[in-house]
């Protein structure tokens, strides 16, 4: 019971932090390109994890190494690149809604490859309930929602690769390794496979930009908090709760976003978005109860 409670707390904490990263990213985009932000935050995150635990990771065989390579490619390189590129082709509201389908993909992949979660009708009802709530939150009072095939397909691919990452992390968790060491190893491969996009997408170090304390503070938040710390807490939550039960917390990300927008950006929370929040929470509860053992 204590392990369950710890897992739920870690998942909730992670989503609360990840739900606020849009503010830091929005600030940094004034001076940095998306690939610069992405590469710098994970490079920083890697060295922070190295400081936390500098011992080398002992991988038993090539099969285990392949799991780490897959997790680095999906959870670090592909997910964030696909999401960022999708945002250049379609509306942020579209991306927000589509990314929220990740728990559904995770449930399907988890059932196929991990065979640990038996899905009941409640899970699918919860999924539809939460998605309805997310749609209300994302497009309330907005006319900026329409189908944009290229961007929307990229967003679906981002949701799918995050589901792959969740399943891979659950498998890695069964190896009995330190979560900090294994997350650092995942970051290594994520950064490694990011090198080619870095050269293709016009990366510049431009460290003088960090003389601005606002840029420095936001990059530190993304590198230390959202990357190093939160990937560890998320991966530990997956280890404790399972890939599917942890993934449903992604439904809460838009909820955190509108609350932070109201507090920091002074955006108003409308009645429609408030209803959306209630539906998201209801869907989260239904989804969590709509699973069982084999």
Automatic annotation (TrEMBL):
Keywords of this entry: Cell membrane, Membrane, Transmembrane, Transmembrane helix
Lipid bilayer topology: Multi-pass membrane protein
Pfam family, one: EamA
A single GO cellular-component term on record: plasma membrane
Domain EamA: residue ranges: 6-138, 150-286
Family designation: Belongs to the EamA transporter family.
Listed InterPro entries: AA-Vitamin_Transporters, EamA_dom, EmrE-like
Keyword Transmembrane: yes
Organism of provenance: Blautia hansenii DSM 20583
Localisation: Cell membrane
Main location: membrane
Protein name: Membrane protein
Transmembrane segments: 9-29, 35-53, 65-82, 94-114, 121-141, 153-173, 185-203, 215-236, 248-265, 271-287
Domain of life: Bacteria
């Amino acid at each position: 019971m204590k392990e369950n409670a710890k897992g739920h707390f870690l998942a909730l904490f992670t989503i609360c932090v990840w739900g606020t990263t849009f503010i830091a990213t929005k600030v940094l985009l004034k001076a940095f390109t998306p690939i610069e932000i992405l590469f710098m935050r994970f490079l920083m995150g890697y060295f922070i994890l190295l400081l936390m635990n500098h011992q080398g990771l002992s991988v038993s065989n090539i099969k285990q190494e392949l799991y780490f390579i897959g997790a680095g490619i999906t959870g670090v390189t592909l997910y964030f690149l696909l999401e960022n590129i999708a945002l250049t082709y379609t509306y942020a509201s579209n991306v927000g809604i589509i990314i929220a389908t990740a728990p559904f993909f995770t449930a399907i992949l988890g059932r196929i490859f991990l065979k640990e979660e038996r899905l009941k009708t409640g899970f699918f009802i919860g999924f539809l309930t939460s998605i309805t709530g997310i749609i209300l939150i994302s497009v309330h009072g907005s006319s900026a929602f329409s189908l944009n095939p290229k961007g929307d397909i990229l967003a679906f691919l981002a949701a799918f690769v995050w589901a792959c990452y969740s399943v891979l992390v659950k498998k890695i968790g069964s190896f009995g390794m330190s979560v900090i060491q294994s997350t650092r190893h995942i970051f290594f491969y994520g950064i490694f496979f990011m090198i080619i996009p870095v050269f293709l997408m016009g990366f510049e170090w431009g460290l003088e930009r960090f003389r601005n304390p606002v840029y420095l503070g936001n990059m530190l938040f993304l590198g230390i908090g959202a990357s190093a710390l939160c990937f560890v807490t998320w991966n530990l939550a997956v280890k404790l709760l399972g890939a599917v039960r942890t993934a449903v917390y992604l439904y809460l990300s838009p909820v955190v976003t509108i609350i932070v927008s109201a507090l920091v950006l002074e955006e108003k929370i409308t009645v429609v978005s408030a209803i959306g929040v209630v539906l998201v929470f209801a869907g989260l509860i239904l989804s969590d109860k709509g699973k069982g053992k084999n």
